[in-house]
Design a protein that fits this description.
Blueprint (H helix, E strand, L loop, with lengths): L3 H17 L3 E6 L2 E2 L2 E2 L2 H9 L6 H22 L13 E5 L8 E6 L7 E2 L4 E2 L2 E11 L2 E6 L2 E2 L2 H10 L5 H7 L4 E7 L6
Parallel strand pairs: 1-5
Antiparallel strand pairs: 2-3, 4-11, 5-6, 5-7, 8-9, 8-11, 9-10
Length: about 190
């Protein structure tokens, strides 16, 4: 027999799912890759604050930023790092679980007592398939939606995924890979 608290959790989940017409999914981000800070949180926030916003829209985004920054300070006794960085506009994940329209909960320290949602819940705008095929140690192909991506597009994709360079991207994705590009902006390839 299930406990009443589990039943309450299940009912709340089903209510939330029905309310938004989809699922809530957590998108966990590391803060380091191979022991080096990746600055994904400030890069994501840079992408969430487009330069085209002004007035009320800009104020709302800045209010969100200050709220999450304050919550980070309370939880971790440190502020968000404010940096002049290029935006992280999407992320890559293995498998094919993600769908457009799903609510994204962006978190750090996922599945720990220090789990922290660092940005407002936002909608997944689109999902694209991505495949990386290594032919040799020095020769790699990248496909998005089955289309071969040239070096210029690979460089753009790597930077938009939060990496400093194509080399850093392929240092991380150093084996054959099939998965999804998860977009929270209107950008697609």
């Amino acid at each position: 027999m299930m406990s009443s608290s589990w039943n309450a959790i299940t009912r709340e989940y089903e209510r939330a799912k029905n309310q938004i017409g989809g699922y809530l999914m957590t998108l966990g981000f590391s803060q380091e890759i191979k022991g080096v800070k990746n600055f994904f949180v400030p890069k994501i926030w840079t992408g969430l604050m487009p330069t085209t916003l002004s007035g009320t829209e800009l104020r709302a985004v800045l209010d969100d930023y200050h709220l999450y920054s304050k919550n980070h300070l309370v939880k971790f006794s440190s502020n968000f790092e404010i940096l002049d960085v290029k935006p992280k506009l999407h992320t890559v994940r293995k498998g094919d679980r993600w769908r457009s329209g799903i609510d994204i909960h962006m978190v750090i320290n996922n599945r720990t007592g220090n789990r922290f949602q660092f940005a407002p819940t936002i909608k997944c705008k689109s999902v694209q398939t991505i495949e990386i095929k290594w032919k040799t140690e020095d020769w790699v192909y990248l496909y998005v939606e089955g289309r071969h991506i040239d070096f210029v597009e690979i460089e753009t994709l790597a930077i938009n995924d939060g990496f400093e360079s194509v080399e850093a991207f392929f240092d991380y994705f150093n084996k054959d890979f099939t998965g999804q590009l998860i977009h929270w902006t209107d950008l697609t390839y």
